[in-house]
Amino acid sequence: MLLDVQNVTKTYPVADSTRPVLDGACLTLGAGETLALTGESGSGKSTLLHLVSALDGFDSGEILLDGMAMSPLSDVQKAALRRGPVALVFQQLNLIPSLTVLQNLAFHARLGGREDPRQIAGLVDRLGLAGLENRYPEQLSGGQQQRVAIGRAIALRPRLLLADEPTGNLDETTSDAVLDLMLDLVRGAGTALFLVTHSPRIAARMDRHLVLKNGRIT
Amino acid sequence: MNARVWIGFWMLLQTTPLAAQGFAGLGADADGFAIPHPGAVLEFPADHGAHPDYRIEWWYLTATLKGDDGDPYGVQWTLFRSALRPDDGTGWQTPQLWMGHAAVTTRDQHHVAERLARGGIGQAGVTASPFAAWIDDWEMKAHPDTGISELTLSARGETFRYELALSAKGPLVLHGDQGYSVKSADGQASYYYSQPAYDVSGTLFLPDGPVEVTGQGWLDREWSTQPLSPDQTGWDWFSLSFDSGARMMGFQLRDSGAGYTSATWIGPDGQSQSFSDGALDVRPLKTERVSGRDIPMRWRVSLPDQGLDVEVAALNLNSWMDTSFPYWEGPVTISGSHSGQGYLEMTGYD
Amino acid sequence: MQLATLVLGLALATGLWSAVQAINTQARENYAEAAERLGINRFATLSSPSGPIAVDTYVRIRRAGWQVSPVLEGRIGLAGRSFTLLGVDVLTYPMEIAPQADEADVSPADVLTAPGRLFAHPDTIRNTEQAALPVPLVTSDRVPRGIVMTDIGTAERLLDRPGQISRMLVLASQPRDLPPLSDIVPTLKLTAPRAGDDLSRLTDSFHLNLTAFGLLSFAVGLFIVHGTAGLAFEQRRGMVRTLRALGVPLGLVMRLLMVELGILALVAGGLGLVLGYVVAAALLPDVAATLRGLYGAPVSGSLRLQPEWFASGIGMSLAGALAAGTHALWQVRRLPILTAPGQHSSGLASETAFRRQAQAGVAMMLFGLSCPWLLGGLVSGFVLLAGLMLGAALMLPLALSRVLSLIENRAQGALAEWFWADLRSQLPGLSLALMALLLALATNIGVGTMVSSFRLTFGGWLDQRLASELYITARSNEEGRRIESWLSDGQADAVLPIRHAETWIVNQPARIYGIVDHATYRDNWPLIASLPSVWDRVADGTGILINEQLARRGDLWPGDSVTPAAGWTMTIAGVYSDYGNPDGQAIVSLPLLLSRFDGVPARQFGVRISPDRAPMLKDALLRNFDLPASAIANQAEIKDRSIAVFEKTFVVTGALNVLTLGVASFAILTSLLTLWTMRLPQLAPLWALGLTRRKLARLELLRSVVLAGVTGLLALPLGLALAWVLLAVINVESFGWRLPMHLFPLDWLRLWLLALCAGAIAAALPARRLNRMPPSALLKVFADER
Ligand SMILES: Nc1ncnc2c1ncn2[C@@H]1O[C@H](COP(=O)(O)OP(=O)(O)OP(=O)(O)O)[C@@H](O)[C@H]1O
Ligand SMILES: [Mg+2]
């Protein structure tokens, strides 16, 4: 099992409510598998993704990645995790504004020490970014930016790709194209995909579809 | 406060009733200064000179003059001495301070100048024999061996200058009791004598040019340590020369009550008679606004014992002495039972 | 945060500016007051070319009718310090010295008779020192500061000069028909009242220096304000857009923003005034000491608030805010209603802006450089300085950007690549703060170089100039002659008379000295330029030496001819350096001087003797001639005193230096803090991509240090240029001498490290904040509802 989320609870310290966002959430995901998670707005989808990508800590339960428990990891180890087996694509604000498209694409992989120039050159083509390599993010459209973000995550060649509504603010056609590309890439690389979305249409294209409600996953 | 005003203020304290208010203790204790005593005999020429062991002293000359242009003129020349301590001393640190006032009054002008100096360096002083009194270039000087009968007199200000010669036509007059002049019911007193009968001639240099003048002069000499009593607020002093040849010195010291008056009647032959408190009656008839103060400019003066009942009126209302301590001093004309001219000094009108 | 920065920046700028203004106006007021109180500019004076005047002479003048007032002046030691004692005749002195009547606990008898009273301004002698005085003291704010006044009777006793008068004031009002003074006292010299007071003329250059410093501080402050105001408006864009979309007219919005800025400026100006007051109050004692030491100018050590100072502070604050705000408002005006806020984070757009700025900078530099040729004078020197500094500041962003992209191209590794690229992209936001730092650093280098060069040169010059072992000042010419003959009688190796006359050379007051031909001069005198066998020319009476001030002002050099007095022309044989003296000076042979001037005092000598015998000779002189200790100074004392005066001069400069550096690092801090909210979205992705917060924090620190370091390197050439301008242009214009430039690389290193520290300190706070930031806060950046 690549990812095993066991009974995780997470509470944000908010003054008025102590009700946990995640309240015994459980989930498993095998290598190369694709999974869609839906749920009402505010149900805790993003929170779960953040926990899985070791960006934030949780209160109880455990998350195992390739059998390795996350809760005892140090800051440095968690950071290493984010440069290696796990990559996360946000809905927006993914790119580093001071770097060019090419630099952005290669950045994560180089940070993780797994840069492969040939693969990146291929990615540029696959992502339809040819001719835009030396542009800066501000000079790209939203769809183009999102494609760079996905490409950057793929370039890292992670075991697990997490995506939080990666097509949230794109129109339907663009969003379908981006999704196609993403599925294409993860399948080719044997990467598992854990995708959060609101769209049943997108969810339907994944191997599995889970729903988060009242802090639990069903 | 300007140093001059400050020093003037100090002198004022000693010569007017303000002393009584500011320095109440002064009346009781003379701070080592000598005090006038009845029965003392004045000696001349020695007493023409300074008496440093008394607190204050003055050589006070006034003259009523007529110019070759026919106009009346008045001239004042005064040297005050004020001692900080009853000793003499030389150099800058002498306690003897001197102040000179000089003035020329015409019908419509009044020229004033003032000088301050210290005694110890020779800038001001008085010698008895031969007599000389001076401050800076102002000088009242006797011909040798004439006592004070033959004098030359000079002073100079920004706008005026005068050179006069004085010649005495009568004897010295001792006021009060042989020169012991009582100033209040409490017994404050001074030594006081006069030479009231100078013939004067000389030149006044005025902004419009020089004027040759002749007329009558009157020298007052007075020294004391505490001439006023605590409740006295000022005085009105008259020196009157009548066309009859008689003269009268009279003063009133004002206080909260009836005041204190004193007079000396001097016959044409120079024989004098003193009148004590109450014999002389002076009362203001009309006041005028002068330098922001209400000052009597017309007086009724009567000495019934001598059949005197006259009105005294200022020649020039603005005879205001705008000096370190200001007062009114100027020539007057006399009408009524007697006619003539004289000088009037008024202090303490605030 | 912006609010605080804006207010603080403006307050700092106003503070420094008004501190300098406060010092200047205080000093000027004191000069005017002193001149007024001493009657220097109101009354003619009567003095004797041959020394003191006898009291009898005074009485003679008085008895001739002239209204004069005697003054006896001398130096006196009181409570362990040395003062000018002015003895006046309180009966005739035309100015008031006693305090108000109601405060005066002093009677005429106290003042006029022994022991007398001293009068001094409360600033001059403190109450606590009064116990040590020989004569009771009355404090009076009518006495000029730094001077002790008393009655002349007390003065002659304290100074032990009975019967002497230094000079007489001829009072304004004189009686008519007086004989001419020259008939009464033909030997005395009448000097007309001096137009304009000497003190302000002398000290003008000093104050100009201070003002320039104040302006510089203000400029640095303005950089901060400009930056923050811009940012504040940038952040308001959203609001402005919404308001405009709602139909509020643009004019109204602009006016509202301006009013808001105005109110902020007033608040900040007020704070700045308080700050300025504190700074000025702290510095004033040193300034006062400098002015007293250098020019003998009586300046109060304590500060009085003055309306003009107040107005100038608030005015500068408003003007500064306005200048900073208009630019920002201009941008708001051009803001279209609909486009999204641009995240110009790549640094692409800024490149062109930088280039335009740099062009403006070059233009300013050229203008500054052309100024001395076009205008000339001290002002043009300062314009040159301003052009150089501002021009360089404007060129800084481009230069930094170029340097950084150079490094970026060589960077290895993703992180390094990002670091340098990011650094460059951050320049627009930080450039103003960095400009401020550049200016502060360059000023530091420039002024530091000038001061150190000066100190070095001055020290060497003193050694040359003060060659004699003892310097004697006799009380009278007669005493001088006796001492001279006694010394020449085998007591000393050589006696060198120091005799001088006052004259005018090249339309300036100048002092002309006569010297005897002696090896002391030949070996030691600090000549800058000379004809061959210069000393022979002086000795045989064919040559004259002039000081550097005179040479530069009159554009004279050896070989030229000069007219030291009416109808007397001589060839300049040499030019010598003469620091610390604002006036012209010349040297000829003594016989020549004596043949040209009458009544040249013979009271001063230099004595050559082997140094170990000097103290004994001093004792012998004091004993034999019953001289006051102050009459003989030995070389070491004079040197110490002179150097102390010059050290004081630069204390102020040093303090202002440190302050500007402080302001500059504060500017960096405020820029970093205001950029913080924009910075987080740039850093959060990196964190998400696998960098720890600690690492990011360290990079942030490094970023600031690197920027400060590079700026520091760029400041070096600018600082040296500044130093050159100060030494070769400003100094020549304001003091009349040019100083050789010495370089002090160790000082630069120290300063550079200081700049690094400033960068690190400025970044420490944001970095710490980043390091402590909880992950959830970082994640918020990515939250959808942003
Ligand atoms: N940093 C935080 N601090 C406090 N509360 C938070 C924080 N992040 C999220 N929450 C709260 O936790 C709950 C879950 O938030 P989360 O972002 O995981 O929801 P979501 O399912 O992703 O919603 P959406 O579909 O709108 O993205 C919400 O109620 C949110 O307000
Ligand atoms: Mg979400």
From TrEMBL, chain A:
Coiled coil: none annotated. The keyword ATP-binding applies. Pfam families: ABC_tran. GO terms for molecular function: ATP binding. Keywords: ATP-binding, Nucleotide-binding, Transport. It comes from the Bacteria. Residues 3-218 form the ABC transporter domain. PANTHER family: IMPORT ATP-BINDING PROTEIN (PTHR24220), TRANSPORTER, PUTATIVE-RELATED (PTHR24220:SF659). This is ABC transporter ATP-binding protein. It comes from Sedimentitalea xiamensis.
